[in-house]
Amino acid sequence: MTKKRLEAFEEIVKQNERRIHFHILRLNLSDPHKEYFQEGLCAMWNAYETYEPDKGPMATYFNYTIRNRLVDLARKQGRESRNQQSACKEIKKHANDGNRIKRAEASSEILSNLDEERIGIHVWGILKQELTDNQWKWVYYYIISCMKIKEIAIQEQTSEEAVKSWGKQVRKKLRNNDFQKRLNLYG
User: Fold this and answer.
1) Which residues is 109 bridged to in the sheet?
2) Residue 107, φ and ψ in degrees, nearest 5
3) Which fold has domain 97-183?
4) Angstrom distance (rounded) from CA 66 to CA 70
5) CB 136 within 8 A of CB 112
């Protein structure tokens, strides 16, 4: 990349920076860590690189590219959040399964909170023994610590796809009936 081209892009960023903020506000996105703004800058760079003047004005192309990239990122983060919540619910459901006495009108807990905590620690310990190191890292960081896939990948110095693969392997094991029996989730 030439220095002139980079300087030209810096000038375009100065002129169009408000365009990114406009789309963030228009899409009602919360951006405390400036990740949407960064995505908008990347989208602007890609639009700048692929722009063809004979197909229309650059501003229209910027708007189209930036908006669509921000929508894609918002959808992706929403999907990851839902997946994380469902994984947490699934683990909690299995950990608490069978912990109630059913009566005619109401159900009451068999164990106290302290006992539930001990059982939870016990289940996590058994689970840790049954998983590979990477699979346990996914459980610990993603489920217990509620970290994002990207944060785990950075911390473990690997790709996001590798971290996602660890999660898929864990989910597959958790669905396996024999594995669930070994964990004593169903008693």
Assistant:
1) 100
2) -120, 145
3) Arc Repressor Mutant, subunit A (1.10.10)
4) 6
5) no
Per-residue pLDDT, 96: 57
* Residues contacting residue 163 through CB under 8 Å, at least 6 positions apart: 138, 142, 149, 152, 153, 156
User: What is the secondary structure of 73-112 as a DSSP string?
Assistant: HHHHHHHHHHHHHHHHHHHHHHHHTT-EEE-SS-EEESS-
Tens digit of pLDDT for each residue in 78-135?
888 888 888 777 776 665 555 544 444 444 444 444 444 554 666 677 778 888 889 8
Question: Can you list the alpha helix ranges (DSSP code H) found in the chain?
Answer: 3-26, 35-50, 58-96, 113-130, 133-138, 149-156, 160-175, 177-183
CA angle 45, 49, 52 (to 5 degrees): 125
| Residue listed under structure tokens 């903020």 | 21
**Radius of gyration, CA atoms only, the chain:** 24
Instruction: Judge contact between 80 and 148, C-beta under 8 A.
Output: yes
Domain spans in the chain, listed from the N-terminal domain onward:
3-76, 97-183
The pLDDT of residue 98: 53
d(CA 103, CA 177): 28
State pTM to two decimals.
Answer: 0.49
